[in-house]
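hey so u asked for the seq, here:
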Amino acid sequence: MTSNESTRKDTSTDTAYAPEHTPRTQWAKHAPDVYKAMVRLDAAARRGVDPTLLELIKIRASQLNHCAFCLDMHTKDALAAGESVERVIQLSAWEESKHFYTEKELAAIELTEAVTVITDGFVPDEVYEKAAKHFDETELAQLIAAITVINAWNRFAVTTRMVPGHYRPGDHG
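ran it, structure tokens below
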């Protein structure tokens, strides 16, 4: 078996899992200045954003962008930080599971969706205004920055086919 093939087995059926895909490129290695700038941008964007909320928006954006690498990373980080499995699981269906989240979290999650799927149209005024009721101007600016940054990370990871499953909480903290 190559190093990229999974050796995990489903013990209930003793069936091997599909092999891992290989990444297209190691973009951070080949564009180190861009990677370092992204790390600095990420650190700047997260300032003042509640860490629990930050992980929720990172998970939701990554779900929408189908970014398995970032989903792996941010669900592990959220769980390691004490987030409940239930809230992480329900995040993909938050509109039907609103009772798992605060009104402030719901406003941030809805804004995350609007910014992430911006190709569907502009961020609706009502979504922005709802978020503005829960966050002061500085907090809202930081939230928008954090949402934008996770979308950029998702695009790097999806485009270069980064492989999920190997991240350990805190590896990139």
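The chain is about 55% helix and 0% strand. The two ends are 32 Å apart (CA to CA).
lmk if thats what u needed
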